[in-house]
Design a protein that fits this description.
The protein is α/β, with parallel strands linked by helices and 354 residues long. The chain is built from 17 helices and 9 strands. Helices cover 47% and strands 11% of the residues. The longest helix is centred in the N-terminal third of the chain and has 20 residues.
Length: 354
């Protein structure tokens, strides 16, 4: 997760009381590297005490999305080269940014227009005003590369209705605007064509005054959420104690989408699925986002330093692109009995905070 030229990949502007941050790496759907994270932190640090900045607006350049996630290919290079300190450096900075957005003393308004996944959820999901459009596609797809949801994703997943969090976390399913609002990942739907008008309103701040009230002026009525209509089979299956039992329940359901979810789970890393299920459920008991980030950091470093499925998943998806990962262990039945305990007990060596 390199730094070169990263400063130019974040546009930082201040005008009429609005601090405007634009991720400017459109060819990579604004995927984050360390320099971009540090540039965002630096701007937010300056604006925290700036009386001329009343709110912060965060968006992404291009028409494909806010942010497709972190620089996963860079993570692969670090793992293969045996550089855990570089991995820790990125995640410590990224999680500090996630916490900063959640705790920021001024409203942070995020436009999650288009693809917003992985690290993009860490930017958008914890903001004060979270806006999606008809083009939005949100997901935490980490299990598809033999990994686990992070950037506070388990905190959001653990607070989704019913067992929707387990479903989204394990399958990596994509949400549209209605789903994202229903699941608690977004607050408002604004038509993409009205985003420039919203930006202008935030700058001029005509009555009403707050960012939320101004957004409501452009709030559109979203259609039905498929997640909500799928709750009967999602809640039934994903309440099961283990991943194997979840798959068995999905197979017993008559709904086609339940069968499709089972098919998807059977292609994914057994290790990633098992640890993610535990992570989402444990996040429900945690007191705040920082505690969830701390839990995720330990798991992320456990995957990066001890588990072959993470580099193998990235290889299959992004390096060789053969889409045929060889998971190890290859089946749920082969997982060791202490897998979850070992994952959550892992000590990264480099602490998250401080």
């Amino acid at each position: 997760m390199s730094r070169p030229d990263s400063e130019s990949r974040v546009r930082v502007q201040r005008r009429d009381g609005v601090g405007h941050l634009t991720l400017d790496r459109p060819r990579a759907i604004n995927a984050l590297d360390l320099g971009m994270v540090e540039a965002l932190i630096a701007a937010l640090d300056v604006w925290r005490e700036d009386p001329d900045v009343a709110l912060v607006l965060l968006d992404g350049a291009g028409d494909r999305g806010l942010c497709a996630g972190g620089d996963v290919r860079g993570l692969y290079d670090q793992i293969v080269a045996g550089r855990p300190e570089d991995t820790a450096l990125f995640f410590r900075a990224e999680y500090a940014l996630n916490a900063m957005i959640a705790e920021y003393p001024k409203p942070v308004v995020v436009l999650a227009d288009g693809i917003t996944m992985g690290g993009g959820i860490g930017l958008a999901g914890h903001a004060a005003v979270r806006i999606v459009t008809e083009r939005s596609r949100l997901a935490m797809p980490e299990t598809r590369i033999g990994f686990t949801p992070d950037v506070g994703g388990t905190w959001l997943l653990g607070r989704a209705p019913g067992r929707v969090g387990e479903y989204l976390g394990l399958t990596g399913a994509t949400m549209d605007a209605a789903d994202a609002i229903y699941a608690g990942f977004a607050d408002h739907l604004v038509s993409a064509e009205h985003l420039p008008e919203l930006h202008h309103a935030l700058q001029t701040r005509a009555d009403p005054q707050t960012a939320t009230e101004l957004t409501l002026l452009f709030d559109a009525t979203h259609g039905p959420s498929r997640l909500e209509s799928d709750r009967p089979w999602i809640d039934d299956a994903f309440a099961a104690e283990t991943v194997a039992e979840i798959i068995a329940r999905l197979r017993s359901r008559p709904e086609q989408r339940a069968a499709e979810a089972a098919d998807e789970l059977e292609t994914l890393s057994p290790t990633a699925l098992t640890v993610t299920l535990a992570a989402v459920r444990r996040a429900r008991t945690l007191p705040d986002l920082r505690a969830a980030l701390a839990q995720e950091y330990g798991l992320v470093m456990w995957f990066a330093q001890t588990q072959p499925d993470l580099p193998e998943g990235i290889r299959a998806q992004l390096v060789d692109k053969d889409r045929s990962p060889s998971w190890h262990p290859a089946s749920l039945a082969e997982l060791g009995p202490r897998l979850v305990d070992d994952a959550f007990a892992f000590e990264p060596g480099i602490p998250l905070w401080g």
